[in-house]
Amino acid sequence: LISFGLSNQSMVFTIWEIPIFAIIGALGGVLGAVFNSINVRLAKWRRLHVSGPSRRVVEVIVIAALTSTIGYWAPSVYSRASHCQSVPKHAHVDVSYFRRYTCPQGEFNDVATLIFSPMEQSLKVLLHAEISLSTSALVLVTIVTYVEAVITFGIGIPAGLFVPLIFLGASGGRIIGEFLRASLGGSVTSFNPGSYALIGAASMLGGVTRMTVSLSVIIAETTGNITWVLPIMIVLLVSKWVGDAFNESIYEAHVVDVKNIPFLGPHAPSHFAFIDARTVMHKLEHGIDVAHLHGETVGSILQLLRRSSHNGFPVLADCGGGEFCVEGHVTRDALTRLLHAMLASQRAVEADTPTQQRSLLKTTRSLTRRRFEKRKRTTTPSSSIPPEEEEFYRSLLPPEDGYATDGGNNHHHRANDVEECGGDP
Fold this sequence. Notes:
By secondary structure, the chain is mainly alpha-helical. Helix content is 50%, strand content 8%. Strand 4 and strand 5 form a beta hairpin. The radius of gyration is 34 Å and the shape is elongated.
């Protein structure tokens, strides 16, 4: 498990650091918004060009090769002796976390320490190690990690985003901490850049995921220092506010923009306050398409389905006095299956043998009883209904309470007992 506990539990922040924490939160919000935007664009490109299984495997191999190559050669930029420093004996982390690379014995390379070590060990160096890390080395590690995380998230392997964001934010926060320590001229014991690494980790998590309460609880518990709850909450709120000004969180972006799932957030967009109903509605010259509970003919239902492309229609009933009441809603698929059931019943009556009648009646009952299930949309029958049958009446009551009536004798029949209906739908 990753521990965010600071190396010096008695260390507290000062009031003048609060604005700096807020600025770090704003930077995390901007970087998180850019991260989400680029990653969503890559995800859309993958859906168009890397959709097949073989292509996804090739993509994973190529990205893994590039990541390994960059990680191997990045420390060589800082392989000179001037970039090596002695391994500290009291750094509050295990000395095995420091990587020598090409440095002399007893010294370590900053970039190799952060890239070659497992990410959990690198995080402990950023958060706990009371040493001076090269600012230029931290910048290189931050840029490389940012680019790799943007490209890797969404490829065809199970890979999380939580730990890479923590490492990315911690390295960025450590840059600010090292810069402030060098600018203020403080020693290692009087100013700890690891606290800024913690704030940077919270900032990057908030800027990408836009979570506030849950992240505050997680980071506060793993930190083990209650005094850091206030700056963590401030950073998470600022990063969320700044990020929301540009786009949505990474998870909502993938759900809505990439997978095209209709997802409604807890609040409507701000510009919706200036939109009225007529702006989003289409004016129909023939009025709203509705279906009547009683008195609908087969021909009128067919005309309704052919005229309108809507997937559902309100069902009205006569309430007397020339007024209509809304009794419910009927889907397009339900009306279509009702017509197909009528056709199957008619063919069963006209069938030559009892076997054909039983088969067609079984199909009729299946269509009638299952018309509300999620199935492939049934096509609207066209020329299969004789013109004289379009004058028959059909009730829209559900099978449990409804009756099918014919237009001639007004005899009522149970809608699911279609064999009693004969040729009258």
